[in-house]
Design goal:
The longest helix has 21 residues. Strands 1, 2, 3, 4, 5, 6, 7 and 8 form an eight-stranded mixed β-sheet that branches. 38% of the residues lie in helices and 11% in strands. It folds into two domains: 119 residues, Sandwich (Immunoglobulin-like); 383 residues, Glycosyltransferase. The protein binds ligand G3I and ligand 9MR. Ligand G3I binds next to loops.
């Protein structure tokens, strides 16, 4: 114990002297950027050194302060998204487990990181437990929520049918019950469109890695039952989604919402009325795709639910076929998130693919022209890639109607496009390839790049794809221009003021609810923040409540994080 304290003091002294030497204040952000959690022994290990001062870098044991590895930095090059010139310090071939930091004689040091097996296990659990923390209609108990326990918010048993959603059987003001589900984000509303990709991505994680998730314990209220915890968590949202379908026609309400965003309150403090608003084609198709997926995934655990999910999916699909142009139009008295879309072709593709896979009915394959469509990066507004992800996974069990070569080629082409950027980018990441990579929710885009890269890896077992997928994770955890590890509670320099009401309004806790990735830097801000540290897209981030364009959390940005970490944990430990 004493020697640990002694060594820590030495380290503190050395770091402090170094800081003084290099002109940094003791509290300044560390100039060398890397994944602040760490690396698996056999994974690539990269740090970013700012500037062009080439030469030697060292890996220092954080306990003994001994130099354990020496390497040469290389490739000073510009990253156009941040305007920086940076170099790579590659210490992939250092594999000894331990705790370390990087030192460059003129630049400074990095935060501490670890090399170990299972290095992202806790982060992975936390990124899934974030969904539990965002549950509506349930007490978060001390046992499961720790210091973030809170009373249930939004029972959602009395929900009014909004004028925009009125039908003969359910006129304006009609009351339905629509409990459970996850709050979308930092706000308290529940949106079907965004629930679509989020819930699907968790179900895909299970479908692709069942043996891993069968054993993953999340300490949620359902943990003691026989089902995998990830499926119990997803079920909380699926149960809510089912209530959003009008049993009279199969249409699905676009969202369940307050009329306005509420103030900075804890969920249980909110009393304003809630409404279901307008049925839309995008809601019906997202719903159909997810329910068709759920019908497969829950077959083994709850066949009755699986059957109900499939029927609901087909009913919603029929509604969408009859109502192919029901674009969401925000009613004048509703001011919450829109999740609007003016192109449903990708939603049709995705729903058709999931229904085809689940039912084996060729009509769904032929309903769309898969030969004519590409892949891309998934987002709430662009779900076409999810069709390819599912088709690839099920390629050995499809009917003769499907073109397996086409499915494989699409995934490889997309993977290669990302890989090329990974190989050539100054930050050694695929993120940054597309203009949309720095839209609102840029960190979600980073995760979704990795989801696609991981499909290419699953298909080919070519490790470059796995390494590239991990590089985007490294980006999220600190190897980025801002230097933040963007996941709350994980890393040394991490968001403390996310735009998350249940964190901001919680007077008991300084620490925000853990396990959420914030939206990340973006090139366009429409929030009330008076300043941003930079106008460069990759630097334009602010850890402040005011910044809902960069510092909010959502279920759709966490889902690719979950998928990516789960897959990487699985492969790094089971190769
Ligand atoms: O689709 C276009 C694309 O074609 C174009 O290239 C690109 C360039 O600007 O813009 C794309 O549109 C963007 C759209 O998201 C889709 O990515 C818009 O610029 C951008 O402003 C829009 O932001 C959305 C934001 O709501 C405002 O509508 C975010 O994606 C979305 O995550 C966010 O969602 C909010 C909910 O409404 C409410 N709950 C919180 C949640 C997160 O902040
Ligand atoms: O808190 C809201 C956040 O969840 C949304 O993503 C965002 C954009 O639609 O809007 C936030 O609410 C703000 C509102 O739009 C304007 N007044 C300030 C609110 C946040 O403080």
């Amino acid at each position: 114990m004493i020697s640990v304290i002694h060594n820590n003091l030495i380290q503190l002294f050395i770091s402090f002297s170094l800081c003084l030497m290099l002109g940094f204040s003791a509290t300044a952000q560390k100039p060398i950027k890397l994944n602040q959690i760490g690396f698996y022994p056999d994974s690539p290990k990269i740090a970013i050194i700012p500037g062009s001062d080439e030469g030697e870098f060292n890996i220092i044991d954080a306990i003994t302060d001994e130099v354990v590895y020496k390497g040469e930095v290389n490739n000073p090059s510009e990253w156009i998204h941040s305007g920086e010139t940076v170099m790579l310090a590659d210490f992939t071939d250092y594999t000894t487990p331990g705790k370390y930091y990087v030192l460059h004689p003129t630049v400074g040091i990095s935060y501490n990181f670890k090399i170990k097996n299972d290095v992202h296990r806790n982060l992975h659990k936390a990124s899934l437990r974030a969904y539990y923390y965002n549950r509506a209609s349930i007490d978060l108990t001390k046992i499961h929520a720790g210091k973030w326990h809170r009373p249930a918010g939004h029972p959602d048993t009395v929900i009014y049918v909004h004028k925009s959603a009125a039908s003969p059987e359910r006129p304006e003001g009609y009351v339905i019950s629509s409990p459970k589900g996850w709050y979308d984000a930092g706000d308290f509303n529940k949106y079907i469109v965004n629930s679509g990709i989020s819930t699907y991505t968790l179900l895909a994680a299970y479908e692709h890695f069942p043996e891993y998730y069968d054993k993953l314990y999340l300490n949620i209220p359902e943990s003691s039952n026989q089902n995998p915890d990830i499926l119990d968590e997803a079920r909380w949202n699926l149960d809510w989604m089912l209530t959003m379908q009008d049993p009279n026609d199969g249409g699905v309400y676009h969202k369940l919402t307050h009329l306005n965003f509420q103030g900075t309150m804890m969920p249980h403090e909110v009393t304003a009325d809630r409404y279901v608003v307008m049925k839309s084609t995008s809601a019906a198709l997202n719903f159909a795709a997810v329910m068709a997926t759920a019908a497969r995934v829950y077959e083994k655990y709850d066949p009755k639910f699986a059957q109900a999910a499939l029927e609901a999916a087909e009913y919603a699909w029929e509604w969408a076929i009859e109502n192919p142009e029901a674009y969401y139009i925000q009613p004048p008295d509703v001011h919450t998130g829109q999740y609007g879309d003016d192109d449903f072709s990708d939603e049709f593709d995705w729903a058709a693919a999931e229904l085809y896979i689940t039912t084996g009915n060729d009509e769904y394959w032929h309903a769309r022209n898969f030969h004519e469509i590409g892949v891309g990066i998934p987002s709430w507004q662009y779900v076409r890639p999810l069709a390819w992800v599912s088709l690839l996974h099920h390629r050995d069990n499809l009917t003769d109607a499907a073109d397996i070569d086409l499915i494989e080629q699409r995934i490889i082409d997309q993977g290669n496009e990302l890989l090329e950027e990974y190989n050539t980018s100054a930050y050694n990441i695929s993120k940054g390839l597309y203009e949309d990579d720095f839209v609102w929710g840029s960190n979600g885009m980073a995760g979704n790049h990795s989801v696609l890269l991981l499909q290419a890896y699953r298909l080919t077992k070519d490790e470059s794809y796995l390494n590239a997928a991990q590089a985007n994770l490294d980006y999220l955890l600190g190897r980025n221009a801002t230097g933040y590890s963007f996941v709350t509670g994980f890393g040394s320099f991490t968001p403390m003021y996310p735009h998350h009401r249940a964190s901001a309004a919680d007077e008991r806790n300084v620490d925000p609810v853990p396990g959420f990735v914030v939206g990340g830097p973006t090139y366009r801000h429409i929030d009330g923040c008076t300043w941003y540290p930079s106008t460069m897209p990759a630097l334009s981030y602010r850890d402040d409540w005011c910044s809902y364009t960069t510092n909010e959390v959502t279920i759709n940005w966490n889902a690719p994080l979950v998928y990516t970490i789960g897959a990487i944990e699985y492969y790094r430990n089971n190769k």
